[in-house]
């Protein structure tokens, strides 16, 4: 898939405020500081489409971008931001979970996992919740350029193995690097095929 246009449409603080749309939506979410904004910019070829901040937890709304006028990329707030108050985190989790479970035109959620790290409990708990709620998702292991291939392979396999405790069929997964562009073609082809099948 070639990205010809990527346009910011709107932001919403909750499901009710999400735009009415017939387009398939592909949402991106991950633990704070996993490199979500950088990955979105790499995939779309627009370096400033999503705001990259040195402070984790910058995304606090559901942000919608229309890609090629054919599908929507949805940037969701990250989870696990320790410096946010408990009340703020609870509010974010409530509207994000509402979107993930009840948004009719959500086609797939891309869950971003830091490939440099061993399996993190918060990531496993989130993916288990998606499985229990029957939300379709794919894993993207980020920052592939920042770790050695053998370590990344071990971390990826360990995460998938841990998921086997609560998931009968393991999800599709990709390795990506916002710096080198690794995985861009594969992720966009996956989205392209999903859009075509809808």
Contiguous runs where pLDDT drops below 50 for at least 5 residues: none
Radius of gyration: 16 Å
Mean pLDDT: 89
Give the end-to-end Cα distance, rounded to a whole number of Å. 16 Å
Features:
198 residues, 7 strands, Rossmann fold, alpha/beta, 34% helix
State the gist of this model:
With 198 residues, the protein is α/β, with parallel strands linked by helices. It has helices at residues 36-44, 86-102, 121-132, 149-163, 184-197, and strands at residues 6-12, 24-30, 62-67, 71-75, 106-114, 137-142, 173-175. The protein has one domain (6-197): Rossmann fold (3-Layer(aba) Sandwich).
What would you note in describing this structure?
This protein has helices at residues 36-44, 86-102, 121-132, 149-163, 184-197, and strands at residues 6-12, 24-30, 62-67, 71-75, 106-114, 137-142, 173-175. It is of the alpha/beta class and 198 residues long. It has a single domain (6-197), classed as P-loop containing nucleotide triphosphate hydrolases (Rossmann fold), CATH 3.40.50.300. It has a 7-stranded mixed β-sheet, sandwiched between helices. Strand 5, helix 3 (121-132) and strand 6 form a beta-alpha-beta unit. The radius of gyration is 16 Å and the shape is globular. The mean pLDDT is 89.
């Amino acid at each position: 898939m070639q990205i010809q246009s990527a346009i910011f449409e709107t932001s919403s603080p909750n499901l009710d405020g999400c735009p009415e749309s017939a387009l398939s939506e592909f949402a991106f979410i991950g633990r704070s500081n996993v490199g979500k904004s950088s990955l979105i910019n790499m995939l779309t070829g627009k370096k400033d489409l999503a705001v990259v901040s040195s402070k984790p937890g910058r995304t606090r709304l559901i942000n919608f971008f229309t890609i090629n006028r054919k599908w929507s990329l949805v940037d969701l707030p990250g989870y696990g931001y320790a410096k946010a108050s408990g009340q703020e985190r609870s509010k974010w989790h409530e509207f994000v979970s509402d979107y993930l479970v009840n948004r009719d035109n959500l086609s797939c959620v891309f869950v971003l996992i830091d490939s440099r790290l061993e399996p993190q409990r918060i990531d496993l708990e989130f993916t288990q919740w998606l499985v229990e709620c029957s939300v379709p998702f794919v894993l993207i292991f980020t920052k592939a350029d920042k770790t050695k291939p053998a370590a990344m392979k071990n971390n990826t396999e360990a995460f998938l193995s841990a998921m086997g405790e609560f998931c009968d069929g393991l999800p599709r997964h990709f390795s990506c690097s916002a710096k080198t562009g690794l995985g861009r073609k594969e992720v966009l082809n996956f989205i392209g095929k999903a859009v075509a099948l809808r």
